[in-house]
Design goal:
The complex is a heterodimer. Chain A is an alpha+beta fold. Chain A contains 11 helices and 8 strands. In chain A, helix 7 (about 250-270) runs antiparallel to helix 8 (about 275-305). Chain B is mainly alpha-helical. Chain B has a domain at about 185-340: Butyryl-CoA Dehydrogenase, subunit A, domain 3 (Up-down Bundle), CATH 1.20.140. Chain B contains 11 helices and 8 strands. Chain B has helices spanning about 5-25, 25-35, 40-50, 70-80, 85-100, 105-115, 185-225, 235-265, 275-305, 315-325, 330-340; strands at about 120-125, 130, 140-145, 145-150, 155-160, 170-175, 225, 230. Classes of the chains: A alpha+beta, B mainly alpha. Chains A and B meet through helix 7, helix 8, helix 9 and helix 11 of A and helix 7, strand 8, helix 8, helix 9 and helix 11 of B.
Chain lengths: ~375, ~350
């Protein structure tokens, strides 16, 4: 065991920190889940890409710097420490890209990845449907084979930032005879294709962060298939591993939240309710535990050359509930001021805690509800019998 | 960066696990409750033979010259088996303490303790009992900042009754002699180190106790049928046990990091906070204690009435959890210690 960073890792951290300190906007950008905010975030994404910080772990030819997994974790710690803008490209670079690296053809890699890294193509995820949420295998959207490609019909919903994206990756039923997990295929769809309609939908916090996407005889060519025809479930599950596990919510995010919470406590000083000390320390320990768990997981992945395993479900339960708890403690610290929302003149930290609380509440729902994750842990980690 | 144990450390853990699987079934724990210590004595001899008791002793004193980091996985195995005996107090606290004092005290006692020829008991301020004080050949006791080596013949012991009857010990009434082993600043430093080590060793044991409680409950929930199906196929059971798995999984790296910090100095420090080894130990003890208590609570609930019976073995592990979660600072005490450091 060696818990020191190598000189190379330390140098990498220093370089990332210096660039972020010089470049992160002084004022927080407007929410990336609004039209105006999304545009501002795109500008930021392109700045990151130009400086080669957009996709640090990717190969150089696709815009990365071939960082190791540990360096990626270090970059993320620095990114959140610097208070840098949220990544509106994350569904592409963190969720789709690992799947493209694993299942994509050379041509797909060469055409998709550089544009994704440069924030020229903006990807959203088309999985949920009105009747297929937790029961994702209930997907009804269809793909029908025609000459030279496929025709898509059906509806996707709760598509994050769908209204601002240019492309969608999603699951469609390509074999109408097959049921459940079989007969699904993973498609890559440009949202400006004929027959595709996108409607923005407001989220709980009022931002237009959701969309529903309708497909009415939309044609896509054969090379829009990622992985094998009928292999969609397997291909998609590799994405959910990324989403629940390492790439969607890196430890740096929660370390930064816990640090801001400690700062809020110090500012609240004598007025803070003493009973909140225990809650605050619990949250702080949890953020540290998540970081250490991730370092141990990555150490094991590196040592045994294995991918992320079922620990991604343990992870997802832990970070999503920690995030809610950290924000609950912050709101309790704010007392009556907790209700002052973004834009209110006396809102503490610009209303960031109430905004963050509402976002945190989505965590136990998206990427597979925590109830589903608990079933996965019980059955695949503990070996309890299926229903 | 390599947050992973070496193959040698894992092999030693496995060897200890095998020893305990053979020598320390639940019947041995239960017999210890009745005062029959022949089983635990055999386990102790086995641990001495493997070098576990003297693991932190220098090679000159018949030890392995290893560290807290090497011991932590072993303590988790000992917790898993609920093996009775003061392993934390002896191997983790007393041996390094005697080594630190050095001189003839170390030369006399460390080899004997490591080989199991002598027993040493340690009394730390704030604890409700001195574990195995009655059978000890040497008592290490603090009087304020002064550490004394005390002859058991010179003390009077009031036996206390732990909820875990396999934990035997009592309060020791004694008069400090004229020649303490350490005083003042040095005594205080040794006491702090002893408290950190006791808390961390106990946290490692709690992880193992929690793992065992989770494992036996998974087995029970798979075998036990109601309404024509295994109760473990019901989400109400699954979700409780998933919560235990999560709590244990995230307590574990805190324990391992604290062991590393004790062995080599504070590691992976969050630069925004004033973190010390003591803070790392407190994080480990708080998280492991809470996780093991959750494991105990859910294990009992999932077992139902059978788990509430004295005849069933479950309570042997649960009561050890209650005792150890409270020993060397409970979770709230440790979180308050963290609060004072970081806020």
């Amino acid at each position: 065991m060696d818990l020191e960073f190598t000189p190379v890792e330390t140098e990498f951290r220093a370089e990332a920190r210096a660039w972020l300190e010089a470049n992160v906007p002084g004022e927080p950008l407007p929410s990336g889940d609004t039209r105006e905010g999304f545009a501002a975030h795109l500008e930021w994404e392109r700045r990151l890409f130009d400086a080669q910080w957009a996709v640090v772990s990717w190969p150089r030819e696709y815009g990365g710097r071939e960082a190791t997994l540990f360096e990626w974790l270090i970059f993320e710690e620095e990114y959140y420490r610097a208070g840098a803008p949220s990544r509106v490209t994350q569904n592409g670079i963190f969720l789709l890209a690992p799947t493209v690296f694993e299942f994509g053809t050379q041509i797909q890699k060469d055409t998709l990845l550089p544009r994704m890294a440069a924030a020229e193509d903006l990807w959203c995820q088309g999985w949920s449907e009105p009747d297929a949420g937790s029961d994702l295998a209930g997907i009804k959207a269809r793909a029908t084979k025609v000459d030279g490609g496929w025709v898509l019909d059906g509806q996707k919903t709760w598509t994050t930032r769908g209204a601002f994206s240019t492309h969608l990756f999603g699951l469609f039923r390509s074999d109408p005879e097959a049921e459940r997990h079989r007969g699904l295929t993973y498609f890559l769809v440009p949202l400006d294709a004929d027959g595709v309609t996108v409607h923005g939908v407001d989220r709980l916090d009022g931002d237009e962060g959701f969309a529903e996407v309708f497909f009415d005889a939309a044609f896509v060519p054969d090379d829009a298939v990622l992985g094998g025809i009928g292999d969609g479930w397997k291909v998609a599950m590799s994405t959910t591993g990324s989403e629940r596990g390492l790439t969607l919510r890196s430890p740096g995010r929660f370390i930064a939240t816990a640090t801001r919470l400690v700062d809020l406590w110090r500012r609240s000083g004598e007025t803070a309710e003493p009973g909140l000390r225990d809650d605050l320390v619990r949250g702080w320990i949890d953020a540290q535990a998540y970081r250490l768990f991730t370092y141990a997981t990555v150490s094991d992945m590196v040592a045994t050359a294995r991918p992320m395993g079922v620990e991604s479900s343990l992870n997802k339960i832990f970070w999503s509930e920690m995030d809610v708890a950290l924000h609950e403690t912050a709101l309790a610290l704010l007392g009556a001021d907790a209700e002052l929302d973004a834009g209110s003149p006396h809102a503490s930290d610009g209303g960031a805690w109430m905004k963050g609380y509402q976002f945190a509440l989505a965590g136990p729902i998206y990427a597979g509800t925590n109830e589903i994750q608990r079933n996965v842990v019980a059955e695949r980690v503990l070996g309890l019998p299926r229903k | 960066m390599r947050f992973r144990f070496t193959d040698e450390q894992l092999e030693l853990r496995d060897a200890v696990r095998d020893l305990l699987a053979n020598e320390c079934p639940a019947s041995v724990v239960r017999a210890a409750w009745e005062g029959d210590m022949s089983g635990p004595d055999k386990v102790w001899a086995g641990l001495c033979d493997m070098g576990v008791v003297g693991l932190m002793a220098t090679e000159a004193h018949g030890g392995l010259g290893l560290s807290d980091l090497d011991l932590t996985l072993i303590l988790t195995e000992v917790g898993r088996a609920a093996a009775p005996g003061p392993l934390v107090e002896t191997a983790v606290v007393a041996v390094p303490l005697l080594e630190k004092i050095g001189g003839s005290v170390a030369e006399t006692w460390v080899p004997r303790v490591a080989q199991g020829e002598s027993r040493v008991a340690v009394g730390l301020p704030g604890e409700s009992l001195v574990l195995d004080a009655s059978g000890a050949d040497l008592l290490l006791l603090w009087h304020g900042d002064a550490l004394h080596a005390v002859d058991p013949a010179e003390v009077s012991i009031t036996v206390e009754t732990s909820v875990d009857r396999s934990r035997r010990g009592g309060r020791v009434a004694w008069e400090p002699g004229p020649q303490p082993l350490a005083v003042g600043e040095e005594g205080r430093r040794l006491l702090d180190a002893a408290l950190e080590r006791a808390a961390l060793g106990t946290a490692a044991m709690l992880l193992g106790l929690g793992r065992h409680l989770l494992d036996v409950t998974v087995t029970y929930a798979t075998d036990r049928h109601q309404f024509g199906v295994p109760i473990g196929s019901q989400q109400a059971i699954k979700h409780k046990l998933a919560d235990v798995a999560v709590a244990l999984a995230f307590a574990e790296p805190l324990v391992h990091r604290a062991a590393y910090s004790l062995a080599r100095g504070p590691a992976l420090v969050d630069e925004s906070a004033r973190e010390t080894t003591a803070v790392h130990v407190s994080m480990a003890k708080a998280a492991a204690g809470d996780a093991a208590e959750l494991a105990a609570r859910h294990a009992l609930q999932c077992h139902g009435a059978i788990g509430y019976s004295f005849e069933h073995d479950l309570h042997l592990w649960m009561k050890r959890v209650w005792a150890l979660a409270a020993a060397y600072g409970d979770a709230r005490m440790h979180r308050e210690r963290i609060a004072r450091a970081i806020l």
